[in-house]
Amino acid sequence: MSEENLTDINNKFESSKAHARQAYDTATEAAKATGDAIKKHAQHAYDTGREQFGAAAKDLGDAATAKYAEFREQAVRFAHDYRNRAQDFQSDVENYVRENPWHALGISAGIGLVLGVILSRR
Q1: Alpha-carbon distance 57 to 65, whole Å?
Q2: Of 13, 28, 81, 107, which has the most beta carbons under 10 Å away?
């Protein structure tokens, strides 16, 4: 082989080496750019998801608060209604006792007798 052929082969080898280095650098830059883009998209997806979950949690909290207020209002209404019914019943019993004291005494004695029998068996 001549020296000229060796030089030509050496030049081609060096040229191939330089092209390979350039291809490697380009691939590295592309991989880095792709990684950065993926990281950016992932961060955006995370931020968006966090905002949406925050909004969903707030909506759920608001709905729970509204439902609590509704149930509380209903419970207050029921308590008020039953208190009125109990007061009406108490008033009716007091009126009955005032109008029929002997009947009330007889009923009370009967209830006392029944309770006394039940409790004495224990």
Answers
A1: 12
A2: 107
Please report where in the chains the tokens 């308590």 appear, as a residue.
79
Residue pair 104/96 in contact by the 8 Å Cβ criterion: yes
Task: Give the pLDDT score at 45.
Answer: 92
> CA geometry: angle at 73 spanning 68 and 79, to 5°?
125
| Whether 104 contacts 97, CB under 8 Å | yes
Q: d(Cα 90, Cα 13) in Å, to the nearest integer?
A: 112
Is the pTM for the entire model greater than 0.85? no
Residue 107: what are its φ and ψ, rounded to 5°? -65, -45
The structure tokens 């207020």 sit at 69
Q: Where are the domains of the chain?
A: 3-120
**Token pair of 13 as six digits:** 């080898």
